């Protein structure tokens, strides 16, 4: 840092005015920040390197103009301050993180005994968890025997049955975690107990939501509510440093992510595959926004194509809410992942690869919708190279052209577009939109299942099915999904 300070003072006209001397000292500062350049090892630039670079730029200003331009001194001072703050912040965060871990380890040695009431609760929780698992297994085995003996009939793909299976899995996981959580409380292992409390929270929430969907609002929600309240209280009081430690770790990760972001921007490689093997970096941020754009653009293209072909407008959306067609979103993601390392290859190879990938994906989606819900959304029977009416040679050629245009022309511009989302909101915006998209997808699947059940004549007794029958009835579903028809006899469900 001393070399950097000397360089900054010299570039501002303080000390020796020789330009070469200032540049030399700045270079030495860069070597110091890089922890020595004699080894020849490559090092990933960070925000600190960016600050050193800005000092170097300021130092390269001709010394003859430095005394008459105070802005030179100001620029160097700002760069030095930014570098110092960045390093100091990172070092302080790491030091605080180490201190919190040491403090927590001292509390977690079993010598700092928890209050008797807490340990008593731990013993009860452990017993409850240990006894619950055999009971669940017994009831599950009894139910399977009833089905095999023909005393009970079930629809294996009906929403209530699926939710019941998920609830069984959640209850087993919850019981196992409760048993371990109780042991940690009995042994006064504060840190481990706090971690298990955090792990139990989403399981308790899932149990409550599943119980609400299957049994409605009533006394069945009392247990999950009480358990969640106790878990929140214990997670705060058992090891207060654990929450602060996680916050510090999150801040450190944000610093590293920002360094990588700044480096990519400076090299004009934002969103690109840094290894050079593929074109795009297959991280969640890129994949999610490619999916969203594919959903919207695919819907627009299909709507225009249908209008030009039959001269009528038809709503061809694939989700309950929003202008989204998930088959095109998934297609965009699959083509990107599969063709990412072929972007430099011959266009003919990309065309045929896209045609095969797109045709196989279209065939699978058609089969799944028919097997799961008895839904037919398209039928290519009688067309050239038709494969079971689920795909055809014409549409495989369309997928080939779409994949070629996507990789060669659309993806570069689209990548620059989605990476224009500012750093300050890119992750929070992506997380929020992910939650909204997941809710839309899950609600759509549940609404389709309930629609199938109503058409099949299945009684809608569960609260969740009654909710969908009231808010998403047959008329609503037929108007929303105008390309879909349901025929329960085509489904692969087993009663």
UniProtKB/TrEMBL annotation:
Keywords: Membrane, Transmembrane, Transmembrane helix. The chain crosses the membrane at residues 120-138, 158-181, 193-213, 225-243, 287-308, 320-342, 349-375, 395-415, 427-448. Pfam families: ABC_trans_CmpB (PF06541). Residues 1-48 are annotated as: Disordered. It comes from the Bacteria. The keyword Transmembrane applies. This is ABC transporter permease.
């Amino acid at each position: 840092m001393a070399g950097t300070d000397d360089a900054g003072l010299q570039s501002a006209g303080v000390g020796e005015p020789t330009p070469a001397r200032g540049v030399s000292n700045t270079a030495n500062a860069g070597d110091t920040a890089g922890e020595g350049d004699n080894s020849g090892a490559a090092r990933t630039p960070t925000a600190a390197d960016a600050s050193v670079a800005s000092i170097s730029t300021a130092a390269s200003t001709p010394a003859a103009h430095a005394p008459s331009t105070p802005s030179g001194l100001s620029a160097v001072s700002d760069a030095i301050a930014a570098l110092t703050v960045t390093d100091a912040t990172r070092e302080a965060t790491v030091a605080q993180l180490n201190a919190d871990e040491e403090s927590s380890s001292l509390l977690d040695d079993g010598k700092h005994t928890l209050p008797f009431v807490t340990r008593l609760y731990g013993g009860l929780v452990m017993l409850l968890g240990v006894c619950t698992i055999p009971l669940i297994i017994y009831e599950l085995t009894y139910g399977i025997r009833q089905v095999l003996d023909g005393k009970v009939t079930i629809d294996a793909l009906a929403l209530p049955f699926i939710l019941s299976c998920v609830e069984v899995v959640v209850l087993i996981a919850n019981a196992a975690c409760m048993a371990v959580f109780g042991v940690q409380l009995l042994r006064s292992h504060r840190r481990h107990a706090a971690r298990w409390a955090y792990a139990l929270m989403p399981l308790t929430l899932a149990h409550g939501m599943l119980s609400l969907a299957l049994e409605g609002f009533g006394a069945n929600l009392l247990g999950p509510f009480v358990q969640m309240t106790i878990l929140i209280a214990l997670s705060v009081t058992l090891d207060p440093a654990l929450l602060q430690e996680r916050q510090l770790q999150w801040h450190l990760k944000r610093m590293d992510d920002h360094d990588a972001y700044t480096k990519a921007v400076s090299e004009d490689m934002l969103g690109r595959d840094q290894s050079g093997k593929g074109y795009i970096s297959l991280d969640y941020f890129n994949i999610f926004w490619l999916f969203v754009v594919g959903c919207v653009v695919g819907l627009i293209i299909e709507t225009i194509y249908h209008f030009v072909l039959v001269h009528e407008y038809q709503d061809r959306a694939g989700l309950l809410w929003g202008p989204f067609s998930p088959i095109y979103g998934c297609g965009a993601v699959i083509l990107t992942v599969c063709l990412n390392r072929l972007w430099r290859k011959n266009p003919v190879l990309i065309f045929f690869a896209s045609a095969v990938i797109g045709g196989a994906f279209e065939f699978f989606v058609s089969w799944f919708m028919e097997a799961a819900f008895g839904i037919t959304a398209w039928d290519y029977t009688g067309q050239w190279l038709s494969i079971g009416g689920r795909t055809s040679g014409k549409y495989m050629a369309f997928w080939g052209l779409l994949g070629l245009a996507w990789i060669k022309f659309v993806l570069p511009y689209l990548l620059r577009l989605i990476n224009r989302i500012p750093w300050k909101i890119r992750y929070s915006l992506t997380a929020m939109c992910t939650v909204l998209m997941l809710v839309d997808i899950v609600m759509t699947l549940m609404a389709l299942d309930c629609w199938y059940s109503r058409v099949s004549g299945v009684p809608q007794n569960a609260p969740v099915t009654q909710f969908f029958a009231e808010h998403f009835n047959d008329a609503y579903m037929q108007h929303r999904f105008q390309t879909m028809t349901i025929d329960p006899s085509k489904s692969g469900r087993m009663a």
